[in-house]
Amino acid sequence: MHIAMIGSGYVGLVSGACFADFGHDVTCVDLNEQKIEALKKGEIPIFEPGLDALVADNAKAGRLTFTTDLAPAVAKADVVFIGVGTPSRRGDGHADLSYVYAAAAEIARAVEGFTVVVTKSTVPVGTGDEVERIIRETNPLADVIVVSNPEFLREGAAIDDFKRPDRIVVGIEDERAREVMTEIYRPLYLNQAPLMFTGRRTAELIKYAGNAFLAMKITFINEMADLCERTGANVQDVARGIGLDGRIGGKFLNAGPGYGGSCFPKDTLALVKTGQDYDSPLRLVEATVEVNNRRKRAMGRKVIAAAGGNVRGKTIGILGLTFKPNTDDMRDAPSIAIIQALQDAGATIRAYDPEGIEMAKLVVQNIDYAADAYDAANGADVLVLVTEWNEFRSLDLVRVKAQMNTPVFVDLRNVYRQKEVEAAGFSYHSVGRPVADEHADTPAVSE
Question: Would you report the helix, strand and coil content of the chain in percent, each value rounded to 5?
Fold first, then answer.
């Protein structure tokens, strides 16, 4: 099938490359000329494991092309996906749908023949109705069906998520779209991937509800971690004890510095605003947003406490800047608030991240960037593990200690065993584990 993917950011590029790998003819469209020229040269603007090879293979095979010219791509397409950004709107927290609506109007002017227009961007309930209204108003003769098909891609594992999904949600209001969408996903459908058809508004809400639930799960275990620290319990044992209950499950129960990234912060906030608009307040989600925002700054205070209550004039080494491993995404990363809290208290920051340094330079200021983890520890009074990249999981602790002014290690991801770190001569501080817990010996696993 011929597919036009409007937007070549994270969602559009990953989805377009995967659809091309299924054998479809995909044209990725973006207004950013520099991005398109880079993609034509095989230069990928984001870090996502395996994406560069996937794009290169399908571009070489002629199934994946890139352009800034929307009209011809849409005119020949059987299906047009809208994969543009929906950031939080400045001032009120609602999802900014201006890019989605602008794309809908352009599609309407360019569309020819029967076409399915699919919203893949994360959008609030009712957006599909407005997209359809815009298309009808712009081009009353357009033979178009508007569908919702939310993405469920985890950064760092997006290709695997696309090709081996837990579910494929498709929201339709016209039965003619069912056959088209089934054909689009046929390679997955034949492998028994659940293809779930719902109403369009239901599909839009499934995306937000899923992200909000996971965000609440993270926030819940973080609050349990605080309680564990005050009662002498071990949050990792608590997480395992409740996670073994099949009704709860063990994923997203790793205590840490709070959630960040491109989805959870903006989607929980947008869902809160939707609830308010419909006079159906979502109190649990509201509390999740508030608690998570407070937690990031609180982790800065935790580091200050580990340093003896004062970091003025001290150097803090930061390991990991991105909101999670295997991405260069700095959006709402916990490291930002942690670093700001430490800088406000007078600390000097020396940081290292395997992939996120260039992105970090755009959002945090006055940081000395290190060449590697050991360089980040050089001259540090406290070393803080913020993002659990694999290369931070097996550090030579003796070497790290030799680099530091004072051997204080704050592990915000519970990666290390307390006895192991203390045996190397460190003062060790983790999240939700008693200071002298003999059972705190199970390293955390990244989601």
Answer: 45, 15, 45
The whole-angstrom distance between residue 424's C-alpha and the CA centroid of its chain comes to 35
Q: In what order do the strands lie in the sheet with 367-369?
A: 367-369, 348-352, 315-319, 382-385, 408-411, 427-429
What pLDDT, in 10s, does the model give residues 353-390?
999 999 999 999 999 999 999 999 999 999 999 999 99
DSSP state of 411: E
b/e code 76-96 from CB counts within 10 Å (16+ = b): bbbbbbbbbbbebbeeebbbb
Average pLDDT, the chain: 95
What are the angstrom distances between the C-alpha of 288 and each of 62, 252, 257? 46, 14, 14
Residues whose CB is less than 8 angstroms from the CB of residue 187 and which lie 6 or more positions away in sequence, other chains included: 22, 23
Give the Cα separation of 326 and 324 in Å (integer): 7
Answer for the pair 391, 354: CB distance below 8 angstroms, yes or no. Answer: yes
Q: In this structure, which amino acid lies at residue 298?
A: A
C-alpha count within 13 angstroms, C-beta hemisphere, residue 292? 27
Contact 171, 163 (CB under 8 A): no
CA torsion through residues 160, 161, 162, 166, sign: positive
Which of 18, 28, 228, 263 is catalytic? The answer is 263
For 342-394, the DSSP string reads HHHTT-EEEEE-SS-HHHHTTT--SEEEPSSHHHHHTT-SEEEE-S--GGGTT
Count the helices and strands in the chain (H runs, E runs): 18, 14
CA-closest candidate to residue 28, choices 65, 2, 72: 65
Run of H or E residues at 144: strand 144-148
Q: Which tokens in the block code for residue 227?
A: 């309680």
Phi, psi (rounded to 5 degrees) for 385: -90, 110
Q: How many residues does the chain have?
A: 447
- Bridge partner residues of 67 (DSSP): 29
pTM: 0.93
Cα–Cα distance measured from residue 210 to residue 226, given in angstroms and rounded to the nearest whole number: 25
Over the stretch 97-144, which tens digit does the pLDDT of each residue have? 999 999 999 999 999 999 999 999 999 999 999 999 999 999 999 999
Residue 28: active-site member: no
Quote the CA–CA distance of 221 and 163 in Å, as a whole number: 30
